[in-house]
């Protein structure tokens, strides 16, 4: 086994967490699940499958992942989500690799599934992410959603053959609900950053999103599922900017909410 820790943050992942944990069998003796308040039986499934279980507060994706990484037994961290298992090819290559340089970070290809359909094209096609790194050198930023890794300037990116199997959602409706939650979180993130949502972004960015993913990124080759995926992502874009505009409207002084300040009356 490798001296690396698999670290997963999750909440209510009972439908996927068991199979995800099983995919790491023989890779490492340290699989750590940080749970932020599951109510669907996730803790019992985690413990039944031999992983370490911790329950704690949710502080946004970036901060929570860093907190969970600090609890790992080893410095090399394989950071995944509850719905991200690994295939046998990736596990074999990880077992054969010597993790001897803290400045190396490891990127994997992702196979993203909507239901049982592997999305080869569109938004989710040709997907790659860095998910293995040494915590002495690499951390997540503090973003509440769509967090990213802070890499040192000397970082060396290594590609390892094999795939992470990402079970995005069991159905289109589940995927839509998931993306609606992300739209809310990203709108709040943009609002805190002082960003605005123009009418163009609210109404035209979703159209561009659909056209780009369904036609230019060949989402139509994934058939009906590719259409549904492109449609949901366009809806996500619309909801995100619509909510951002609402937040900006709510924070504006009453006199500015109609788009122009009211003149002060002479005393």
Give the SSE string: EHEHEHEEHEEEEEEHHH
Uncertain ranges: 258-267
Number of strands: 11
Give me the Rg, rounded: 21 Å
| Fraction in beta strands | 15-25%
Q: How does the helix and strand content classify structurally? A: alpha/beta
Helical run tally: 7
- Rough outline: globular
Largest β sheet strand count, sense and barrel closure: 9 strands, mixed
Oligomeric state as shown: single chain
List the helices and strands and how they pair.
Blueprint: E1 4-10, H1 17-22, E2 31-35, H2 42-48, E3 52-55, H3 61-70, E4 76-81, E5 84-86, H4 88-96, E6 104-114, E7 117-118, E8 127-134, E9 139-140, E10 149-150, E11 156-169, H5 172-192, H6 199-216, H7 223-251
Parallel strand pairs: 1-2, 1-4, 2-3, 6-11
Antiparallel strand pairs: 4-8, 5-11, 6-7, 6-8, 9-10
Helix pairs in contact: 5-7, 6-7
């Amino acid at each position: 086994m490798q001296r690396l820790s698999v670290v997963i943050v999750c909440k209510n992942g009972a439908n996927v967490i068991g199979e995800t944990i099983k995919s790491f069998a023989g890779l490492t003796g340290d699989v750590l699940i940080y749970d932020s308040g599951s109510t669907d039986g996730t803790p019992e499934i985690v413990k039944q499958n031999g992983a370490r279980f911790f329950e704690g507060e949710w502080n946004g994706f970036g901060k929570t992942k860093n907190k969970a990484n600090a609890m790992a037994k080893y410095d090399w961290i394989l950071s995944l989500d509850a719905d991200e298992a690994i295939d046998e090819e990736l596990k074999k290559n990880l077992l054969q690799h010597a993790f001897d340089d803290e400045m190396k970070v490891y990127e994997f290809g992702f196979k993203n599934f909507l239901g049982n359909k592997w999305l080869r094209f569109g938004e989710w096609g040709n997907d790659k992410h860095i998910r293995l790194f040494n915590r002495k050198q690499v951390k997540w930023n503090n973003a509440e959603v769509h967090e990213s890794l802070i890499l040192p300037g000397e970082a060396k990116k290594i590609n390892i053959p094999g795939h992470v199997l990402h079970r995005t959602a069991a159905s289109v409706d589940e995927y839509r609900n998931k993306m609606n939650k992300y739209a809310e979180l990203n709108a709040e993130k943009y609002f805190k950053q002082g960003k605005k949502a123009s009418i163009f972004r609210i109404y035209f960015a979703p159209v561009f999103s659909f056209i780009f993913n369904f036609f230019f990124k060949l989402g139509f080759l994934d058939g009906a599922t590719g259409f549904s995926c492109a449609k949901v992502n366009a809806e996500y874009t619309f909801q995100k900017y619509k909510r951002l505009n609402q937040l900006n409207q709510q924070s504006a002084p009453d006199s500015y909410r109609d788009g122009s300040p009211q003149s002060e009356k002479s005393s």
